[in-house]
Amino acid sequence: MADGSTADVSPLDRALFNGFLVSTLAYGALVMLYTQLTQVLLSRPKRGNMYWSIVAYSTLLFCLATIAIGGGLKFAEIIFVENRTSPGGPMNYYNDNLTNNIHIMSQVGVTLVPWFGDIMMLYRLYVVYNSNRLIVVLPSLLYVARVAMSIPLLISQTRSVNTVWATKTLLYSTTFYSLCVSLNLFVSFAIAVRLFWARPKVEAIMGKLHASFYTGFVTIIVESGALFTIWGLTYVILMSRGSNARDTFLLPYTHVLAITRMLIVLRMAQDRAWSKELASATVGGVMDWQVSSTHSIPLHDVPPSTVSMNSLPRKYQESL
């Protein structure tokens, strides 16, 4: 039977707790993905620049996500366990202790994960569109604006509620997440359209069976980062409507982003992600580039002598 104290739990307090819970579940999924990625990388007999780039990126992303969840869970313990009877409830205690060092550490991790996460999406957009620089101009500008806005947002979220910075948190937050959603909507839509449009050409090069690894529905969802885009869009809608459920989507925001990026990195490590060679083949045709259906991204350096000059596109022949 519920007592009087549980009956007085506010919707905001409940949403905050649910947010921490979902964050924990999302981090658990991230741990499994990173473990699987490590197993794939350790099985590689040859290791080149791409291999070490994947190792560095995935490890950095995982460490930042760990800092974010570690600080968040410790702060949640302080809020819901050590100070559960604080006047005003957990949400009020949260707002009164934004300068807590543990909270600051967590927020730094929360801020940095999207920095590196969105760089991956810009890179993937560039690769999928066959190294077309024009396609990344607009999202790059959105990325720079989002990074710039994340700094005052971080400052406002780690200052007392009675400071000038803290009074502008809502403005900074609205601008920041609007830029995030705009960036990811553009990138996700552009990648999805490109993969869907390239399906007939990929099938002509590889056949329908092997092409399904690169143009299937699940592939499009993973390569475009659509899961995170939908999650971010849902949060912005809830925030604009003033819904109490917004914190349930806000707190796991960073880890959902990390999961979608780690899925892409895992595909790269498994040689199932789109590569520059495959993107070039869909433009130049099978006569210009015979793409291997089992080797899309070389994780080891291939000596020039092992590559047939006549099988390369002209632009690659000139660079060798």
Write the layout of secondary structure elements.
Blueprint: H1 4-7, H2 11-42, H3 49-82, H4 89-96, H5 101-128, H6 137-157, H7 164-167, H8 169-206, H9 208-215, H10 217-223, H11 226-241, H12 246-250, H13 253-269, H14 276-284, H15 314-319
Helix pairs in contact: 2-3, 2-13, 3-5, 3-13, 5-6, 5-8, 5-13, 6-8, 8-9, 8-11, 8-14, 9-10, 11-13
Commentary on this structure:
The structure is a single chain. This protein has 320 residues and is mainly alpha-helical. The protein is built from 15 helices and no strands. It has helices at 4-7, 11-42, 49-82, 89-96, 101-128, 137-157, 164-167, 169-206, 208-215, 217-223, 226-241, 246-250, 253-269, 276-284, 314-319. Helix 5 (101-128) crosses helix 13 (253-269) and helix 8 packs antiparallel against helix 11.
What is the CA-atom radius of gyration, in angstroms? 23 Å
Helix content: over 70%
- What's the rounded overall pLDDT mean? 83
Tell me the total number of β-strands.
Answer: 0
- One letter per element, helices H and strands E, the order comes to HHHHHHHHHHHHHHH
Overall, the morphology is elongated
Indicate the low-confidence ranges by residue numbers.
Answer: 1-7, 287-296, 304-320
